User: What shape does this take?
Amino acid sequence: VLENQELQDSIKPQKVEFHSLNFNTTLHWQPGWAREARDVLYFVQYKVYGQSTWRNKDDCWGIPRRVCDLTHETSDIQEPYYGRVRATWAGVYSNWSLSCRFTPWRETMIGPPMVTVVHSNKSITVKLQAPHSPFKRKRGSKITMTNYYDLLYQVFIINNLLDEQHRVLVYEGKDKVIKIQDLRPGVSYCIVAKMYVPMLDRSSAYSSRQCTVL
Assistant: This one.
């Protein structure tokens, strides 16, 4: 029995965590410390905080990989959820490993906006598009993250003549199209943007750089 207990402990999953970007939510975990156990399989369950019964995630039942997509299962974004994982190897099952409580609306990371840049001789027009969630309207189009949060766009300009690392905030607000004027012809400028969530005081990562020479 003791050997069995040791084996159970050695394959028990570690660090069970939710990762979420724009409500695309996955559960991740690390293997137990039995490194030689090659063919370990994992089982995933989830529940809403306060519910007594755990639900099996069928697609993640007896899987070799260490990630499980729970986007659909966590679609009620104001609810707090738990996930848990157990492992099996050589006919032995570990105990369950529990995640921390996860509330999508509070904890999902917001991705950066899509940025398109059009230039004329002394100005740059920047077109911004908020990231999409995985959830769809009845007609099938994906719902943008602006439906769930009061989001602001933050637009930064980089004058490559001066310093490639120096970003200057030139706009913060909700407009999807902005114009940056009085720029110098012949100079290379780059634009990057972020989404900002005032209520949570949180920002997305920067978008990829869109560069242009006037």
